[in-house]
Amino acid sequence: MSVKPSILGDFEQLVLFAALRLGPEGYGATIQREIDEQVGRDVSLNAVYTTLERLEAKGLVRSWIGEPTAARGGRRKRHYEVTSDGAAALRHAYRTFMAITAGLERRLSGR
Amino acid sequence: MTRVPRAVVWLLSLRLSPEWHDVVIGDLHEGLASRQAHPLAARWWVWSQAIRVTFRPPGRGRSGARSLVHGFWGDLTYSGRLCVRRPLFGVAAVAVIAASSTMALTAFAVVDGVLFRPLPYPRPGELHFISGAFRGLPDLLLRPASAADVRAWQAAVPAARLTATSIGGSVAVSDNEGVRTAEVDRAFADVVGVTPVAGGFSDRDFTDPGAIRPALITDRFWRQRFGGDPRAIGRRLTNTAGQGLVVAGILPADFVFPHPAAVIAPEVLLPLRDFTSSQLDDPGRRWLHVIARVPAGISSRQIEAWLAPSLTAVAARYPPPVPDARDSAVRRITRGPFDDVRVQSLDDALSQGGRDLARLAFATAAALLLLGCINVAGLSASRLLDRRHELATRRALGASSAHIARLIAAEHGLLVATGMAAAILASRWLLDVALLLIPSHLTLLKAPAIDLRAAVFAGAAAVGATAVSTALSLRRGFERDGRLVARGPVKLRTSARSIFLTCQVAGALLMLLGGLLFVESLRRVWREDPGFNPDRTARLRVHTPRGFGQASVAELLGSLKTVPGVTAIAALNEPFLERAITGSGFTAPTGALATGDVEELTVSSGYFEAAGLRLLEGRYPAPAEFDGGAAVIVVSRSVARSYWPRANAIGRTLEQSGQHYTVTGVVADARYRALDSQSEGEIYSPLDRASGVHNIIVRFDDDEPWRLVDVRRRLEVSFPSVRVSRTEWVVDALAESIRLRRWQAWIFGGASVTALVVAVSGVVGLVGMAAARRTREIGLRIALGATRGDVTLQFVREQASPIAIGVALGSLMAWAAAPHLRDLLYDLSPFEPGIWGAAVAVIALTSLLGTLVPVARAVRVDPATALRPDS
Phi and psi (nearest 5°) for B537? Predict the structure, then answer.
């Protein structure tokens, strides 16, 4: 029996894609920076934390505490990694997006 | 700036767990490092991020507010389930809150318009009544003033603006109908601050009002007469003689005429003509009520001091008073000039009497609500002992004292809210009953209703009741040092239970005493002999057209006499049981003792029989004599004794307008003003000199309700020009005349019965829970040889002390409060020993009975069952 993938909100998709891109180097500060650089959206750290907590509660990401580093003033990181369920949810979101936008490329590109 | 500011580190340490604190500070550090090119922006960024994290810290699951709501909701649903599982407690608590809140809410709906609603005038604190006074008559308030007084007062206090009004008049609006009026001078609108919603008086209205008077009509009159038609201005209401009014304007819907006599509240305002020189030259003609707007900050005493010198100037214009031995003491003083002046705030004057009563009613209702809270707290405290294991488990799982308090508050909130909702529904019905009895003299600034204000009051009362009942029972939820009792059966602490019992008994005794005093006061009024026989007698309040002479009256009476069931009928040209004083036109004979206000009643010959008066001496005048123009009168016992103290009144004469009338009979004094208003003497003179009729008195051979309908129908069919405004049995009119006392008895009697029920149910609940908890002890005692009677006696002995202390405490409180009731009671001391004895006996007996009922049930337990380990 196949499990239905979770439906993701807009911001949840952004955070999950950023975490997917970063792989093991995904944590609060880098995810925030990735979203800013890739999408140009300045989001708060707190929004990222809250969303990651929610995604973790849904089983779409998992987290662990890393070692302290000098670049962080001797503070530790909380790393996040996309789980297989998270990847499935992203795939579902991506396919949905592609399906609904099929044939609209020209109109959406504005040409 | 490369490091996260210490203040941020400290701030976040308050809200974050150590693990998350490390993670967040590390991320902020990285963010700062990447923004080094713009230090100011970096500083702004780090603070903004830190503050957002502080508001919704990660690692806490739900946010604080949502968590609180979720937790409270969980507590509520848990409490609901608990109440359903063990309904006895829930039903008892809801019933107690509902009963006490219904009374409180109804009382609030009535007194809201007396106590809490601000006067509908701008800056009402600046408005004052000014009235002349007599040092010899300190109780006479709001005496009307003369035009000369008004002129002198205005000159004495230039800082104030005065307006003069005249009340109690009427203007014809048709041939057989007049409406109540008040005349107001040209300064009225400005001083009082009333602006008509449409139209208004012109300057000419105050100099030449004409036969058809310009009138500002009240909103109610406008809706009744003109159906709220905005084109009503300019419309005329007149009689066939061309007298009447023309609508000059419409007053606002919330307009209240600024005078305490609400029973004569005018329906229209007429312009008071500017003072004429003859009015100004006659300081003895007093008919004006004066209102002043005084700048804020000037006290009533200060104004009185400023006005005092003006009294001397006006007094100097009075002719020296001529001594007359026949004048009553009061009359001798009031014939002279004012020697004192009173300034009273409008707010106080309008609520005179009514506000004290309203305060008392509201305090009673609040006390009842408090009693209900104590009762619920007592029941709850007792039940929390049963739940000690559950609470201990919660503690063990990490629940703080705040969590336990929230749980208790949620349960109480649920019970109170349910009780209050039931009260809102029940109070609608109760208010309908209260409105039937509400005293007509109360100046209500809004119609009594269960409206938004009442709902807000109910909400506030619910919050207050929850807080009080929770606070009172919290102690039961905690152990001495904040830890919960967790082990073994705990005997109910007698101290806490005793305090609850004592408070309930004391409160119930206080309210029961109040209720009994008012009910006994009403009973004594009812026991009074009105001086006439009200049984099977009715009165018709009629309005006869102009020129309705005595021949027409005789024809009318003759026609009604033939209606089946009528045994006697008569006409009376004075008010009947309407709290009105009409006075007498007869001159007291030389040598008469001082009397009060003797009333003259002009009646037709059948009146003595129709009213059922008791003849004490002499005879009633024969019909031919009385209706035929003979100068004969009948006097009451008080008149006979005061006018001819050393002689028989029969055959004596009294003079009126030059004619001498011979006394043929003496009858008992009769209470025509109201049943609770003592008669000061009556003189019955023939109706033949008067024009028109005010009342028709009809005696029937039974009191079937259709008799009244028959008579009224005959009158309306046979005499269409005569308008009947009221038809009622005299017994009902007597009851109506003491409406205030009935209202008092109803409010306070009802409150006392509710208090008694609440208190007894509290005793039953508390003792019942204590007995249930001590089942094992009871079983053990019986197993060891104690009889059931012994165990019962022991329980009763345990309750006797708190009940006795409650009775003593309640008596003490009642002793302190009783003097305030003295003026409200009729012919009854607030310390009446019989009432006090009855109240104490009722409270003591019902409390003991409340103890016996649950104990008798508990001692029926089988010792073998009670002593089983799992029981």
Answer: -120, 140
Count how many residues are written for chain B.
871
**What confidence tens digit (pLDDT) does each residue in B432-486 have?**
877 776 665 555 666 677 788 888 887 887 788 778 777 766 665 554 333 433 3
B24 and A29 within 8 Å at the Cβ level: the answer is no
Residues B635-684: tens digit of each pLDDT: 999 999 988 988 889 999 988 878 889 999 999 999 988 888 888 889 99
Mean pLDDT of B42-52: 89
Q: 31-50 in A: which are within 8 Å (CB) of B?
A: 32-33, 44-47, 49-50
* In B438-493, alpha helices (H): 452-477
Q: Are B668 and B637 in contact (CB under 8 A)?
A: yes
- pLDDT tens-digit series, residues B596-635: 678 888 888 889 999 999 999 999 998 888 888 788 999 9
Which residues does B728 contact at the CB level (< 8 Å), separation at least 6? B538, B539, B708, B736
Task: State how far the Cα of B739 lies from the Cα of B419, in Å rounded to an integer.
Answer: 31
The three-state secondary structure class of B473 is helix
| HSE-CB of B429 using CA atoms within 13 angstroms | 6
Pick the more confident residue, B240 or B320: B240
Q: Which residue of A has its CA nearest to B34?
A: A33
Whether the Cβ atoms of residue B830 and residue B822 lie closer than 8 Å to each other: yes
Query: Is the CB of B52 less than 8 angstroms away from the CB of A44?
Result: yes
| DSSP symbols for B626-661 | HHTT--EEEEEHHHHHHHSTTS--TT-EEEETTEEE
Contact B809, B865 (CB under 8 A): no
CA B618 to mean position of chain CA atoms: 47
* Torsion angle of the four alpha carbons B346, B349, B354, B360, in this order, in degrees rounded to the nearest 10: 80
B248 CB neighbour count, 10 Å cutoff: 23
DSSP 8-state symbol, B387: T
Please name the residue that has the structure tokens 């409340």. Answer: B850
User: What is the DSSP code (8-state) at residue A4?
Assistant: P
Report strand pairing: B659-667 vs B615-618: antiparallel
| Band (B66; pLDDT cuts 50, 70, 90) | very low
Query: Contact at 8 Å (CB) between B171 and B178?
Result: yes
pLDDT averaged over chain B? 81
Tokens of B136: 């010899």
As a whole number of angstroms, the distance between CA B848 and CA B842 comes to: 10
Distance CA B85, CA B87 (A): 6
Contacts for B722 with CB less than 8 Å, ≥ 6 apart = B176, B542, B543, B544, B545, B548, B556, B715, B716
pLDDT digits (tens, 9 = 90+) for B288-324: 889 999 988 888 888 888 888 888 888 877 766 665 5
Q: Under a CB-based contact definition with an 8 Å cutoff, are residues A60 and A82 in contact?
A: yes
CB contact under 8 A, A75 and B22: yes
Residue type, B410: A
- Does the distance separating the beta carbons of A75 and B26 come in below 8 Å? yes
Q: Which residues of A touch B26 (CB under 8 A)?
A: 29, 68-69, 72-73, 75-77
**For B823-856, what is each residue's pLDDT tens digit?**
888 889 999 999 999 999 999 888 888 888 888 8
Query: Over 90: is that where the pLDDT of B811 sits?
Result: yes
- The per-residue pLDDT for B636 is 93
pLDDT score at B663: 93
Task: Find, in chain A, the residue whose alpha carbon is nearest to that of B45.
Answer: A44
Tell me the C-alpha distance between B405 and B410, whole Å: 8
Partner-chain contact A44 B58, CB within 8 Å: no
Alpha-helical segments (H) within B192-299: 219-226, 277-280
Q: Report the interhelical angle of B739-773 vs B87-111 (nearest 10°).
A: 160
Token pair for B83: 């109440």
